[in-house]
Fold this protein.
Amino acid sequence: MLSRTSKAGDNVVTRPHEVSPHEFNPWIHVTSLIEKAGHVLGLNEGLIKRIVTPERILEVAVPVRMDSGQIEMYHGWRIQHDTSRGPGKGGIRFHPSVNVDEIAALSADMSIKCAVVNIPYGGAKGGIKVDPAALSRGELERLTRRYAFSIAPMIGPDRDIPAPDINTDTQVMSWIMDTVSMLRGHNTPGVVTGKPLAIGGTLGHAGATSLGVTICTSAILQRLGRLANEQRVVIQGYGKVGAPLVKLLSERGMKIVGIADIRGAIHVPGGINPLTMSEHYKEAGTVMGYPGSDEVPAEKLFTIPSDIAIPAALGGAIDAEIAEGMAASIMVEAANGPTTGEGAAILAGRNIPVVPDVLANAGGVVASYFEWAQDLQGYLWETELFQQRLEKTMHEAFNHIWARHQQLEVTLRETAIVVGVERIAEATELRGLFP
Ligand code: NAD
């Protein structure tokens, strides 16, 4: 699957796929951002190419015996982008649109994200091209275990540590952990994170991403001299990240005036009550119909009069049109890759600061780091210790990015990528080139 293309007058550059210059390709997008950061740092071309190029790409066939008795074939990948700072870290997603370019791009994002929050990991990502909703529980377990078996030579507590991502959860992590433990002949809890507490998970993991987003939101408000209790917030997504955000931001005095899920969007000028919303959602399975809310077209969510916009659902949601119409004057990216290149340029042109995903939603990977550390120690931390360390790590990361942002005078996203690339470059140079 891996193809190689040459740039004129240049050495070979490894790219997962060739694409037309007009087609949006997440891999080309992320690598161009890394290359740009390398140039800002004055790194030599050879080092930039080394940092951009994924270290390992494994493609696996995943045969599954379906409940009908027939064999169905699926394809999966595990990619280690960079391991100069530590073992690879990154989720596994099950989705019909999964492809090698997407996984490669997400693995590079993970290299940057782990470096931005300064945890001792490199970047990795994996996935299977499959619609898990079409599988029975037994089929899903067999698919997961066969995939885990196939990528087992590449993963491990000191090599590469997967975690949940889109359509994978604590149960999928449990099956991967069990499959690898059976293969190795001993319990290997540190091979994945996002496990249930009963088999080596951690206290505090649920909601860690949202806590990190909240810390970044409060931190940017403080830097801009704005009061939390004067902020109106709109959130796209009411899932594992969006739902806890409603509570955490409200606790800090912010008013959630708009929210959307896959079924549509609502406007609540007086603010959403987190408890009432949680109860409504349990009953209705959607945010739509929240008492006292006005329904608005989904694409109008970000035009609701507000101060802070938080995309917490889809990649690519903030395109040029949405960015043009955005009412808020700050955006905090809870989702992964929610802003297109054009959307980002428009927000920058409108002087709307954006706390980028690689910083804002890194609470999840920091929580994974703590889970892995506890597995290696064989010692469960108390919730207070977990939260205290999570908050410290996120605050330090935000403070560092903000200080560099002031010096570099580029966007927070560009600053974060510069900081990430700088740390990866330092590790790469210190280690030297083998052999
Ligand atoms: P989730 O599946 O739990 O929730 C997704 C939410 O988005 C749901 O409310 C869904 O209805 C909504 N949604 C889906 N399509 C939509 C649409 N077209 N318009 C509006 N809303 C829509 O997912 P999650 O775990 O909350 O993840 C959300 C985002 O955050 C993703 O981009 C994910 O990659 C990112 N992220 C999650 C974590 C984590 O810890 N879960 C960590 C880092 C980043």
Observations:
- The first helix runs from residue 26 to 40.
- Confidence is low (pLDDT under 50) at residues 1-15.
- The longest strand covers residues 71-82.
